[in-house]
């Protein structure tokens, strides 16, 4: 990773990565007099916690929390092009990005063509280790997300949604879950 930044012209020390227990790192860094502002993109519960820590130390904050990005496809759109863009956006980082679409609103005139192309694209994604050449989607962030995803799919199907592709864990190692498409949720 350091080599990538060097090749991109990022000066040494301009970007630093810290690994460890997130709560311990946050508590230490936010309390530091070196830190003047906290910026966070992620879940509402974590944002709330970081906001409280920041307030204790009178640190300015910027929070982007719990985004719900809709992807809208109108009848005049090219369904194949729209689905290719939608697949790329939805499954980037296994959908664990605040800007990942959470729902697709597709007009009737292109619905079938869009869904067919989207399902096809999602089903062809290569899932695996992000460090391996050709991988298009990596794992979920944590083991507990596997059960959460399975529960979300099960709940949607029991409530009448149609499972078009995916819907289950891949293998028994790592936190890999199939790219999943549900319609008529």
How would you explain this protein's 3D organization?
The protein is of the alpha/beta class and 185 residues long. It has 2 domains: 2-65, no CATH class; 69-183, Aldehyde Dehydrogenase, Chain A, domain 2, CATH 3.40.309. Helix content is 41%, strand content 16%. The chain has helices at residues 2-7, 22-31, 44-56, 79-91, 108-124, 143-158, and strands spanning 37-42, 60-65, 69-73, 101-106, 162-165, 181-183. The strands form 3 sheets. It has a two-stranded parallel sheet. Helix 2 packs parallel to helix 3 (44-56) and helix 4 crosses helix 5 (108-124). The protein is globular, with a radius of gyration of 20 Å.
Total separate domains: 2
Rg is 20 Å
Count of helices?
Answer: 6
Mean pLDDT: 92
CATH superfamily of the largest domain: Aldehyde Dehydrogenase, Chain A, domain 2
SS-based structural class?
A: alpha/beta
Distance between the termini: 40 Å
Measured by DSSP, the beta-strand proportion falls in: 15-25%
Name the CATH architecture of the largest domain: 3-Layer(aba) Sandwich
* Overall 3D shape: globular
Q: Which strand order do you get reading across the main beta sheet?
A: 1-2
Describe the secondary structure blueprint for this structure:
Blueprint: H1 2-7, H2 22-31, E1 37-42, H3 44-56, E2 60-65, E3 69-73, H4 79-91, E4 101-106, H5 108-124, H6 143-158, E5 162-165, E6 181-183
Helix pairs in contact: 2-3, 4-5
